[in-house]
Write the structure tokens for this entry.
Amino acid sequence: MRSLPLVDSASRTDAPAAQSRTAVLLGPVQQENLALQYLAAAARRAGHRAHVVAYSYRSDLDEAVNRTLELAPDLVGLGIAFQNNIDDYLELMRVLRERGFAGHVTCGGHVPTFCHEELLHEQPGLDSVVRHDGEQTLVEMLDALGRGEPVRDIAGLVWRGEHGIARGPLRPPAPDLDALAWPERSEESYSVGGLKVEFIIAARGCVGECNYCSIAAYTTEQRKRYRLRGAEAVAEEVAWLHRERGARVIFVQDDLFVLPSEKKTVERTRRLSAALDAAGADDLVFWVKGRPETITPAVARALREMGVIHVFLGVESASAERLSYLGRTHQPEHNDSAIAHLRAAGIVPSFNFMLFDPDSSVDDMEATLNMAERNLDLPWNVCRTEVYSGTALVDRLRAEGRLEGDYRSYGYQMLDPRAEVLFRIIRISLHERALEIESLLNRLISLSFARQLHERYFPSEQTAALSRRAHQLGIEARADTVRVLREALAFVREADVRDARAVQRFAVGQALAVNAQDHERRRQVEELWQHYTLRGATLMERRGDGQGAATRAGFTVAAGS
């Protein structure tokens, strides 16, 4: 069994120093950005230097630019993970060039994979785009720089040629994920509820073909929808995280952890469990993702036996029509059965409700609101279906002449004018409670997980009292969210939605009432979060685990969607 996750370039003797080049990779780091860390590990294994620099929000711009320039890279790579913050990366690139960076600038990820032409046509400061899996592509780019050659004619790369956009051949997906260098982890540690958290990728891709999902588009183009790491290899890395970094909580960042086959899921989960037990890493809990139609009683039991205590479940809607439109392969009854099976196994599911999509009507919402009301004790949030480059949904809206915006941020108006007005009302009245990144409902999902961790690791009367407070706070906020949604739904059904002033008065009135209520709720959530963090760190210290307290302990560390 190896003792280190990767080979440090400083210890290599087979990579001439004259050829070694430096890469700085920038992207969001609310959780461990394993996509960038895998790239950095590949570059280091090949004898180059690589650094990951956090750029999560526009407010990080100056610090990210300063750190990048301090590192004096030959290549800067921008990991653009989200369609709606492309402008943040364009501004970062502009400032870097303005401050004198003359090296190679590239970008990659799901978003650039599909809008590479727009980026290269419109952004003269961008030299290339990496499409799909980038480990080997990045290494070959750095090798070319090390030889003093132009960065071009590389599989998986798109660049600006003499006669327009030039493309290398599609790079096939890495056939053996276990052969990749382990991603390096941040020096800063992460925690939820005072317990050390680590992140892992056990698979790439997804079996789904959801119309709105760029993952489905990404894997379809690669012609390799789903790749698994070996169970024993995953267990080896998890055991290393447990032994060397003190992990007690593992977030599996796979887009899909539960396989379509019940038999294969149970077998793989049991192999993971056995390998972890053999490595002495049995005091762990897991957060994973799954699709409702794949959660059976046997799967739920196997997950719980492995240590899974939380599943982010792809519910999306309780309307059969909306699920069909979205390209989902489950029915509303699968939502209910999956939740029931997980509850029976002692696993908490969380999920998002996509209340709106381009063709949804106000009548479609009733079933989903009913489902939300039946599950007030579970952590959930509400949102709208967004449009991403490369997806079937963006192609459909473009063909219908309904696609709004551009590659920086696509949008649409719903066919049902009442549904469109309803969304605009909710965008105002529930913005801070539901729609912003650190909304109250998202924070309650994180708080619910911290509650679970304390119930698992520190069972006591005090823990039970804390759980009751956190649990009740979530129920009250979600019950009121259903009330607000029903009130807004009744308004658009009865009012003249063409009366802009009346709509505005209603939306602002709702927002003022919601935010007045949530001021105290947010205070209580923050208080409980801090209490869980400090209490958990203290109790772990008493157990002799000095890594209980961690630097990054914000709500986004426990974000699962």
Notes: The radius of gyration is 24 Å. The CA atoms of residues 447 and 529 lie 6 Å apart. Residues 1-18 have pLDDT under 50 and may be disordered. DSSP finds 19 helices and 18 strands in the chain.
